[in-house]
């Protein structure tokens, strides 16, 4: 259905010096009609022009307008840009408030939400709200803030949503129409003003290969040529390493250790690419890397490169000096501050979360002015900051996402590659992927042509939100759940699930099961066969016990029959056996069963498998399947290393063969494959197995019973009418048809149950349980009326509100000094996971004692939640409180210089500053909470804490302000 064309107003609210693109003029037309609009377009397509028009319209009409952005740094940039354009602009980010009575207010989404919670008068005057980067709503941590603020805004407010391309834009607009009873138009464009060319640079090869041209055509021949030029040996090592990357630390260390030469090749390749970019004048270039350390390593490795002339060097030094002059004398001597200038003067920049905020801003300003020619950045640079380049380079197309190494998703690739090609300056943008391992064409096309990530709700209930809503009249927490995008998406999915269930049920009814007698026989035979399978599994689970099986796995070469993710890979060869202290699983076939409930043993096994187009399987991409001997072409079958646990072993053979120590080379694996074939040839009736009684020495009565039961079931099956009177083909056909029918009916039932749950209110049970927790902890009374404790928790949203409130009310802070109190709170704002088994080792007693008290309080809170049947993991909850920054924060509050404080941390300077800034925000919130409940002593203590934190480089003002 075509949208109605918006009416042109007499005089536009804002004139532009350029001709608007069709999507811009369409969006502007809807704003003129005072109707909401979602503009989903690529990076640098010109979405900001639409936002500026909405601001101009509001100012012309004397109405207030709010511009929200996801991060403070982006808010600062927008404030500067909009102030230059309109003048009457204010800024509110929590850290800073400038001109709060301005007609146009730039703020973070968190500030907007807290204004709505408190029923701020300002909200009554707002006519337009602009949400920049609204696709942030899918962020698992902070996405809920966008959703709540959108729901809580009055119906008369009009919206301008600016987003990257999202495949479900119309679903989002439908949601806005439903909850705010107003039209919301979608203006969507996939058009890129500057087309992109995508190249592959194979490691160790002789140049670039164009795989997608500016018209979007995939060059299959070029892609195959690029893959062929990857040396087979390096490919084999890489793919073996990829197989071994199960997400556990030991494998990653091994991967890094094996990557010494690989890292060198990567640097050589990067040097060649940068040289080519500079000689062909394809700069500026952004080089994306998925690790902060790699960004710095690559930048420092270009020590002989110089991309700037004397005039540019002077300009860079001037900008740098002006920025750094605002710092104290000691801060100017920080290693990061001293190390960056020589790089910048040569036109090379670094941008990542570990950089000091002031240095990040210097880099952004120099890059925007064209003085940085090569920028090494992590993917955060591609989010929000509008700074395009001519060329984008990926140093790696795999990333570690906290659990495993995986290919980048098409959404991530679109976001980062979108930085290539500057509108009005370049006729095309270049994207270069450095590749050090073979990639299937299907994976490559999936990354290059895949859809951007959809905008899915990440809605969750927090205690802070619950208390704030219980405090507001006429707003029930249930209303927020019913109105959430999460609920809207669920309800929209329900009809499709019911249709799918009906389709499966119809398929089940139309299956050919033969006559009634044949169907009954198939049913009997199938049930008996399932019983036999279950009995055999019980037999295997006893035989897999370490006390029986481990002694036969100590030496490499043992034949093992292996099943992974319910798929039997057949006979493989054991190459190594380890006893571990924790759980371990992995391999290319996806994550295996966790071994945490038994002594953790891991085995490396060579198994025959076949590469195939990737399938998404339980959240991981599988790139191989079991080899089907006699069906698969032998040339396609390869031996790969898999990491398995004891529970993946189906049978253990009496046969052992010799295996070479180094199995990385294809030749060594080929020898093992030939040996496996030879053994199978010598034993045509099946490879001899270890006898459970004689060899494994199993003396378990249950085991004997199970073996006898399995024998009896086998005899009953072989004497069944279906086995005697029917041919093998007919028997297999009838049993498979019955099995398919059972499977289809079960899948249909599961879908119906899911659809039913989608139509009831999401998280309703959680809401009840959370209210129970609040009552038990004394935040609300039996009638749901907020008490003093609850009013305190309403103010806290930077850390766990329940734990902070308990710390206040159990008097933990009373006996602590200001410095101790602030140091203790740092456990809640240092966002990194606890790395050591003993995080408190060597901690001074004046910090250890408060930390121990905090853990006791946290334990009480989490056990209260568990007692109310909430699904909370106690260990996971307690591990959120990381004491690693306590000593550094204590020293900072005592007045120590930042350069010395940094030596007490094991983190980047930027991480330390982020922790201290979040900490100051938390301290400020506790000050407000103490004021709200009339605790003047606590208020004074934390006011003092805020003053101790706010000094020098940690709180130096933004260069954008």
Brief characterization of the structure:
This protein has 35 helices and 23 strands. The chain has 961 residues and is an alpha/beta fold. Among the domains are: 168 residues, P-loop containing nucleotide triphosphate hydrolases (Rossmann fold); 69 residues, no CATH class; 96 residues; 138 residues, Elongation Factor Tu (Ef-tu), domain 3 (Beta Barrel), CATH 2.40.30; 189 residues, Sec63 N-terminal domain-like fold, CATH 1.10.3380.
Low-confidence stretches: 232-261, 581-599, 613-622
Strand order of the largest sheet: 4-3-5-2-6-7-1-8
Using DSSP, what is the number of strands? 23
Largest sheet: 8 strands, mixed
- Rounded to the nearest angstrom, the distance between the terminal CA atoms is 46 Å
CATH topology of the domain at 767-955: Sec63 N-terminal domain-like fold
Report the mean per-residue pLDDT as an integer.
Answer: 83
Per CATH, which architecture of the domain at 767-955? Orthogonal Bundle
How large is the count of helical segments?
35
How does the helix and strand content classify structurally? Answer: alpha/beta
- CATH class label of the domain at 767-955: Mainly Alpha
Report Rg.
32 Å
Net shape: globular
* Fraction of residues in β-strands: 5-15%
């Amino acid at each position: 259905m075509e949208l109605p064309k918006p009416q042109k107003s007499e005089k536009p609210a804002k004139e532009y010096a350029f001709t608007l693109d069709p999507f811009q003029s369409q969006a502007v037309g809807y704003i003129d009609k005072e109707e909401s609009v979602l503009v989903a377009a690529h990076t640098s397509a010109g979405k900001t022009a639409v936002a500026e028009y909405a601001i101009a319209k509001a100012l012309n009409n004397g109405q207030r307008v709010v511009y929200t952005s996801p991060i403070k740094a982006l808010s600062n940039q927008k404030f500067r840009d909009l102030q230059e354009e309109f003048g009457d602009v204010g800024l509110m980010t929590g850290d800073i408030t400038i001109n709060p009575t301005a007609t146009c207010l730039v703020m973070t989404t968190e500030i907007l939400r807290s204004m709505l919670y408190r029923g701020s008068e300002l909200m009554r005057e707002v006519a337009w709200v602009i949400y920049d980067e609204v696709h942030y709503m899918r962020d698992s941590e902070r996405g809920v803030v966008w959703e709540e603020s959108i729901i809580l805004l009055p119906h008369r407010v009009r919206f301008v949503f600016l987003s990257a391309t999202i495949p479900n834009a119309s679903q989002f607009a439908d949601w806005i129409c439903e909850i705010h009873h107003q039209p919301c138009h979608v203006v969507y464009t996939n058009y890129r003003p500057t087309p992109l060319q995508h190249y592959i640079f194979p490691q160790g090869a002789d140049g670039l290969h164009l795989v997608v041209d500016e018209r979007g055509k995939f060059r299959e021949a070029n892609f195959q040529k690029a893959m062929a030029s990857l040396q087979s040996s390096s490919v084999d090592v890489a793919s073996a390493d990829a197989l071994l990357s199960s997400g556990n630390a030991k494998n990653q260390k091994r991967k890094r250790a094996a990557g010494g030469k690989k890292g060198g090749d990567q640097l050589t390749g990067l040097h060649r690419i940068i040289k080519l970019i500079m000689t062909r004048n394809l700069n500026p270039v952004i080089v994306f890397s998925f690790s902060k350390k790699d960004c710095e390593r690559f930048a420092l490795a270009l020590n002989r490169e110089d991309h700037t002339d004397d005039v540019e060097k002077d300009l860079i030094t001037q900008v740098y000096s002006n920025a750094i002059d605002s710092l104290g004398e000691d801060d100017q001597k920080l290693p990061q501050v001293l190390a960056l200038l020589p790089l910048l003067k040569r036109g090379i920049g670094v941008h990542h979360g570990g950089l000091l905020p002031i240095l990040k801003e210097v880099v952004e300003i120099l890059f925007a002015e064209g003085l940085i020619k090569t920028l090494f950045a992590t993917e955060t640079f591609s989010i929000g900051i509008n700074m395009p380049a001519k060329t984008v380079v990926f140093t790696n197309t795999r990333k570690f996402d906290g659990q495993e190494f995986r290919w980048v998703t098409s959404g991530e690739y679109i976001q980062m590659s979108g930085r290539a090609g500057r509108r009005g300056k370049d006729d095309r943008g270049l994207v270069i992927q450095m590749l050090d391992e073979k990639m299937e064409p299907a994976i490559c096309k999936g990354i290059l042509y895949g859809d951007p990530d959809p905008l899915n709700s990440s809605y969750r209930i927090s205690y802070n939100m619950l208390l704030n809503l219980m405090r507001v009249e006429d707003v029930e927490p249930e209303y927020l759940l019913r109105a959430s995008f999460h609920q809207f998406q669920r309800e929209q999915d329900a009809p499709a699930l019911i249709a799918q269930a009906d389709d499966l049920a119809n398929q089940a009814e139309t299956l050919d099961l033969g006559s009634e007698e044949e169907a009954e026989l198939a049913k009997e035979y199938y049930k008996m066969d399932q019983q036999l399978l279950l009995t055999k599994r019980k037999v295997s689970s006893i035989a897999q016990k370490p006390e029986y099986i481990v002694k036969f796995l100590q030496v490499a070469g043992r034949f093992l029959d292996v099943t992974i993710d319910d798929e039997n890979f057949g006979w493989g060869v054991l190459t190594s056996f380890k006893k571990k202290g924790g759980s371990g699983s992995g391999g290319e076939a996806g994550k295996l069963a966790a071994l945490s409930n038994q002594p953790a043993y891991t085995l490396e096994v060579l198994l025959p498998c076949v590469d195939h187009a990737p399938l998404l399987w339980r959240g991981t991409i599988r790139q191989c399947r079991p080899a089907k001997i006699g069906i698969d072409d032998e040339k396609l079958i390869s031996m790969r290393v898999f990491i398995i646990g004891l529970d993946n072993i189906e049978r253990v053979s009496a046969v052992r063969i010799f295996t070479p120590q180094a199995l990385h080379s294809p030749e060594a694996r080929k020898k093992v494959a030939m040996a496996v074939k030879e053994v199978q040839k010598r034993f045509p009736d099946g490879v001899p197995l270890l006898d459970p009684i004689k060899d494994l020495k199993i003396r378990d009565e249950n085991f004997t019973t199970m073996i006898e039961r399995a024998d009896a079931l086998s005899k009953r099956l072989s004497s069944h009418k279906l086995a005697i009177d029917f041919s093998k083909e007919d028997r297999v056909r009838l049993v498979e048809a019955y099995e398919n029918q059972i499977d289809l009916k079960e899948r249909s039932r599961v879908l119906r149950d899911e659809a039913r749950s989608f139509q009831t209110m999401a998280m309703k049970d959680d809401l009840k349980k959370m209210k129970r927790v609040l009552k038990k902890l004394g935040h609300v009374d039996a009638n749901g009326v907020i008490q003093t404790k609850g009013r305190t928790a309403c103010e806290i949203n930077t850390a766990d509100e329940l734990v902070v409130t308990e710390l206040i009310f159990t008097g933990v802070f009373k006996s602590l000094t200001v410095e101790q109190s602030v140091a203790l709170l740092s456990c809640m704002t240092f966002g990194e996971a606890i790395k050591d088994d003993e995080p408190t080792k060597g901690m001074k007693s004046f910090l250890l004692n408060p930390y121990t008290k905090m853990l006791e309080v946290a334990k009480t809170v989490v056990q209260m939640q568990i007692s109310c049947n909430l699904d909370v993991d106690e260990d996971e909850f307690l591990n959120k409180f990381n004491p690693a920054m306590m000593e550094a924060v204590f020293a900072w509050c005592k007045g120590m210089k930042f350069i010395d404080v940094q030596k007490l941390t094991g983190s980047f300077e930027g991480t330390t500053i982020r922790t201290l800034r979040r900490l100051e925000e938390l301290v400020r919130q506790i000050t407000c909470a103490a004021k709200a409940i009339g605790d003047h002593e606590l208020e004074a203590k934390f006011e003092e804490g805020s003053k101790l934190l706010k000094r020098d480089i940690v709180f130096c003002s933004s260069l954008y302000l």
